[in-house]
Amino acid sequence: MNQQLTFAPADDGLWEQYSQLATRAYGHPVGDITHLREHADLQVAVRGGRVVAGGLGLLVDQFFGGAPVASACLGDGCVAPEERGEHLAADMVTERLRPLIDRGAVISTVVTSSTGYARRLGWEAPTGVLAWAVATDDLKCSFTTADFEVEHGLTDEAEALQRDLARQWNGPVHRPTWWPRWKHDKSNLTTYRFARPGHLVTGLLSLTTKRHERHGMSLVVHDFWAAGQPTAAAMLAFLGHHNTRARTIEFRRGCCGGR
């Protein structure tokens, strides 16, 4: 590792090299490197003509106090295994943030499962963010759908509801126009919307299935946005009856919002 290390924005060739590096470092292909190519910024570290580290960055708005705030969102970063132990990841974060700060980012969010390492680099969760699982039978016994109608599919009206509810919380992303399709394709989501007959949509639910290793399955909720307690109750009742093979309903961190 005596050759000089340089940092650069990725051109087509470096982007392909980084995709191959990420597959080697993570142990599997990283789909976002392809799917977000039109929207994300990719910064890489190069040594001897080879990409040895890098990561994606997105400039998006996050809601705080009801207002959109420019945020640098980082994800899908990695360092070549043979380059680890030299603090390259920390240097890479600085280089990834630089162009996003130049474009107006004033806060930064990182998407990672390595929460301890993220804290050492300076990130901290401002509040507890939890995921939890509920037995399907408990939902069946506790909630009823009342007089809500349920329809399949995402509509402009449902997206507008999500934006309105997200604005009432601190932290949710103000989703760009390409965001819903990316998330649905990435996670194989199915979306439902809830409304009383003849009224506007008041609930948005997106979920996918997770098969258990031996038998059965779980439902995994990615979006749970309800404009009030009656809508939330109807959505929970729907989850309880959605699939007779689902033993549990798993709610991902950050999936829920409402008023």
From TrEMBL:
Domain Eis-like acetyltransferase residue range list: 171-252
Gene3D superfamilies recorded: 3.40.630.30
Transferase found in the keyword field: yes
UniProt keyword annotations, A-Z: Transferase
GO biological process: aminoglycoside antibiotic catabolic process
Single annotated GO MF: aminoglycoside N-acetyltransferase activity
Full protein name: GNAT family N-acetyltransferase
